[in-house]
Predict the structure.
Amino acid sequence: MTMAKNPAHDAAGCQSALLRGARWRPWEFAVWAVAFALPFVLPSRALMVNEVAIVALFAMSLDLILGYAGIVSLGHAAFFGFGAYVAALFAKLVMPEPLVGLAVAVVLSGALGALASITILRGSDLTRLMVTLGTALLLLELANKLDWLTGGADGLQGVTLGPVLGLFAFDLYGRTAAWYSLTVMLVLFLLMRRLVHSPFGATLKAIRDNRLRAMAVGIPVVSRLAVIYTVAAAVAGAAGALLAQTTGFASLDVLAFDRSADVLLMLVIGGVGWLYGGVAGAIVFKLLQDTLASVTPQYWMFWIGLILVLLMLVGRDRLLRPWRWFRIRESTRP
């Protein structure tokens, strides 16, 4: 005889699973401690740490819509580049305070994401790919034509930032920039982690797995997708703002197609549906890029492409088996 399920028991089980997934593991504290110590221990690599932190934050923003909501995008650089230009223009024309400029870039990028979310709520995955790519190309051409404001093909130059909180000036070695980017990355990571391990995040996974079934059980699919797309755009804008603020420069490159392609490759390497996948993918990709560019400056893209092809077609299952086992073990640990 089959016993009826207890809704209260099911709800308690779901809540327990969400809390278990949101719980911090000891290795996570070690990872973040090492990240913040690197600019001090290896000051010559501080600029690299800063760059990895920025692209890792960018990759996590894409993972919010791709890994958790199932929205494929080839134009996520639109929000990254928009945030970069907003932060650079704010510092140049309004005030040089980094945190205020960062906040403005986040808000405006989120507003752009909310507006763009209308275009991804209908249609197939192929339609979304084309629409997101078209959005990025439109912004790229707009930035190119408005050369009186953005600098056009020459880029927006002469961007100077004041000290962070009026205390920590940006230095030539990049240590302040690295700690600044890591701190912003950590704060946004905590917010994203809380979001994906909440009931809202659980509904996103349900939509990703089966949109029609999610609608049938009463999940407001349209509003959920619009919200997560807006949040992802705001986080991507924050990453772009960090790039402009720490380099003092914004160019058309931040809106280019290869920027979107690179961050997608990072998620392929690190894995989707897990925020640390974006971090791991960014670290591996940037280290490969830096190492291969120093060895073969002219052909480093060829070698990265070859490694990715081999990873996907030949050795992905074998190479990622320990990584997959670790992810499963972490998600099921009490």
Observations:
- The mean pLDDT is 82.
